[in-house]
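DM from R.C. (forwarded with permission)

"hey, sorry to bug you on a friday — could you get me a structure for this? deadline for the figure draft is monday and I only need the backbone to look sensible"
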Amino acid sequence: MPTPIITIEERTDTQNLYNWSTIVITRTDNVETQRVTTYDAGTRATSGLVVTDTSTVDGLVSRLSVDAGNNNSWSTIATTYDPITKDLTGKITHFDNQTVQTETFVDGVQTQVVKVDNGTTQLWTSITTTYGLEGGGHSVVTQSDNGQTTTDTFNSDGKLVKRSQTDAAGADSTAAWDTLITDYDTNGEATAKTYTLDTGVVRAETYVAGNLTQVVQTDSNTGSWATITENFAADGALVSRVKVEDNGDSTTDTYADGVLVSKVMTDVANGANTNWTSITRTYDAAGMLQSEEQLMDDGGSVTKTFANIEETVINPTTGLSSVKIVNVVTGSITQDSTTVDAVTGQVGSSDWDSITLSYTDAGVITGNTTVMDDGDTVVRSYTAGKLSGMVKTDVNDDANYDTVTSVFDADEKILSSTVVRDDAVATRTEFDTAGARTRVLITDTTDAASPDSTSATDAMDGTYVWSSVETEYAGNKMTGKTIIYDDSR
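My reply, with the result:
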């Protein structure tokens, strides 16, 4: 009689000697191909499990563990093996919270873990961890429920070195950026953050010891500017800000303790709406303007100084008063161009070389000194902001006078004009409020005048000189003349 071949073997622990209740073994060609073990309920890790092992002639191929007793946080765990090397090749775990974890192994070493949330218990839909990166690190890719994707990269010590985040597209977008890349140092502190904003602007932030030190924004197409660069102190206070426009123009702001202290604007593009190449402004500790210098396209310049004054403001509704700080001009110097006209040969674009303006502390003009191209000067003085006097000086001695001095009334109407000639003869002309002359006094201060030096040519027989000639007018008509001669005749 042939030996029977056992194909199914069932073992039952009726005496409760073991931690299992039944074992069912299936054999094919006398080789065990399956073993199903049902474990007892209890305190052991195997409590309430049903474990199914599948094998070949070479060894174990797979194992399925079912948590029939519902004693664990998972319902099933399925593992696969290489029957030759006995190495674990895969593991799939179904958790009670409807998440599934799939693990992959190569030569027994874990290379990837993928977690998938099939329910709504987590804030993510999947998490993929990949091991064995160059340098021994690993990465974790998280797909969030809101559509964002986060990729974390770790070094061989398990420390986070980079995080890349991608926002959902279109209507699913939940952030103001498309991508955000963060780099970390070995202490876990951020060293750099790079945003690609929804607008297309790229914002790159640099950190030192966890403190923001620089922000560089680059605009590809949405704005009128190309880059904005901001630098910060260790305490986070803004130090400088440089904005470069699409046309190359730039504005550089400098700060101290977070307060603006200077601004430099450059007109690289030489725009049609500007006649300057650069403007430099300085500010006080309160952020109020102190000075401004403009360098003009033609080589000239304008320099202004400013001061702050208190101004009382009355509320027309309540009648209450308040004080505000007003910034006013206290001085100004305008320098003409230093270039030479190729046709006329004239230096600069104007007939003057510089204009210097002075003001009161309240910003009311008090003086104007103009230096002409030939060196002559024109000095204007003001009272209560109105022109009150003017002195022209023939510095280069190319005219027949040394000075012309004019005096004006409160309405800036001329009161008198005094011309001192090269020969020291002084002519003073006085005017009434209508601008008509009322008196002309010609004085020979050095006895150098001849009888022909004025319109009063008839000095007796023409051989005598005079010391003064005074003519009076009414309604622009001469009413009298007095001549005082050197010999007192």
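R.C.: lifesaver. Residues 448-464 have pLDDT under 50 and may be disordered.
me: no worries. The radius of gyration is 49 Å.
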